[in-house]
Amino acid sequence: MKKFASILALVCFALLTGVSVQAQTFQSGNIVIYRIGPSTATGGTLSSAAQPVFLDEYTQTGTFVRTIALPTVVDGNNRRLTANGTTSTEGLLTRSADGRFLVLTGYDAELNSTNPANVSGATVNRVVGRVNAAGTVDTSTTLSDASGNIRGAATADGSSIYVTTSGSGVRFVPFGNPSATTTTLLSAAPTNTRAVGIFSSPGSTTPAQQLYITSQSSGIRIGTVGSGLPTTSGQTITNLNGTDIQPVLGGANGTTRQDSPYGFFFADLSSSVAGVDTLYIADDSGTLGGIQKFSLVGGNFVSNGTINQTSADGGATMTAFTSPRSVTGFVTIGGAATAVTLFATTGGTSGTGGGTLVRILDTSGYNAAPSTTVAITIATAATNTTFRGVALAPLNPTADTVTIEGRATTANGAPLSGVTLRLAGTQQSVTMTDADGHYRFEGVEVGGIYTVSASHRGYRFAVSRRTFGDVQTNTVADFIAAPIKKRSLRSRF
Fold first, then answer.
1. Of 155-164, 238-247, 272-281, 446-455, minimum mean pLDDT range
2. Where along the chain do the CATH 2.60.40.1120 domains lie?
């Protein structure tokens, strides 16, 4: 009861003042949910009209921490950020690739005004919110040339932002873009786009950062947008090989069905595959949906199975896990052991709202069926509120650092000294292995995307690059080398 009372008091204060509740910075490792409601209209029930938006912070076990209200009044360059209360395709939340910001979308619409998605962008600007680790909210980034629902946003570092819409495609917009300045439509098709995110490249370390979107139009399910992080029009959106062929639950891979992809998360779980190699997709296809897992095998993504049940009591009582639309996570790597911790949300579409936050632990690793098919419910939306997107909390780079270390050895385990290791991505650094073949990068910023590459003049590495996305803990990356065979002069004649 005390917990409910404290949450209610924070919500009431935010609703009455339109001011964010910012008693503390975000805590490293916590989870943030995009929440809509309760409505300020009589009765508090949600509707398709413009509703108040909040960011709720939770621990990884589902304990509520605090809430931040998005603006409901214009204040200088900061615009309002409200949302349709009953459209489940909005409110997709992401954290920047460098870990420093949350980005989200909404409408510069007055509370309880008619469905803002049905009003032109010139009349009701679409808005991008950016929130840093201190909880400071900026809603100065606007789009006047986007129509329909504005769904989600992604950014590498908070300065260049990508947004998805239901009618105006995926667009590039600089941070702080005024409403009088047009934005860039990156690709002519599809125009109906869903989630957007930035990860490294599958099966490659080039480019180091790649823009992805999901859709259910023009044959696109999850695809790359051009190469890297494009800022100009004329880009081609290309499906990831294999992701457009989905398994029927309990059936064989390659059996087609009507899938419905939304949010996604990439991981690098195999030392034998360059770049990211494992993909989790939130699919909202009702009882056929859930969190789908794919692994990159021979250049194609192969289905490993679906996490399609949920439980509030650790698995004793299970129900179907239907209609997740947002997923995030992090990877814990130690030697040969890998574990992926995922967090996903479902959301209601009725006036009374609804939604759950779930946690999933997959320890099976690369190209294996998920170690569990059960998502554990850790939080539930209160009446007249609904959950939408989920992301890891933004981080203060100066306060949150880890190490990336490992060894370089030959195939028989002998240490290899003098190997050059280069750290690229959010941070850059160079070091060499010692007499024991060991190297260590310290002070690595949490939440970034990193590639560690190994080189030695006399050796060739089975895998010379390892990529890690959204690093949260101390990470181990080992390299195995074989001598380069020298060609004799006689063999040339």
1. 238-247
2. 401-483
The three-state secondary structure class of 128 is: strand
Q: Is 489 helix (H, G, I), strand (E, B) or coil?
A: helix
Instruction: Give burial (CB, 10 Å; 0-12/13-18/19+) of 189.
Output: middle
Question: Radius of gyration of the chain from Cα atoms?
Answer: 23
Class of the 401-483 domain? mainly beta
Sign of the dihedral through C-alpha 102, 103, 107, 108: positive
CATH architecture of the domain 2-392 equals 7 Propeller (2.130)
314-367 pLDDT tens trace: 667 778 888 899 999 988 765 455 789 999 999 888 999 999 999 999 999 999
Name 410's Cβ contacts closer than 8 Å, sequence gap at least 6: 416, 459, 480, 481, 482, 483
Check: CB of residue 144 under 8 Å from CB of residue 152: no
Question: 235-242, long-range: CB within 8 Å, 24+ apart, which pairs?
Answer: 235/186, 235/187, 236/187, 237/170, 237/187, 237/189, 237/190, 237/213, 240/202, 240/279, 240/301, 241/299, 241/300, 241/301, 242/294, 242/300, 242/301, 242/302, 242/303
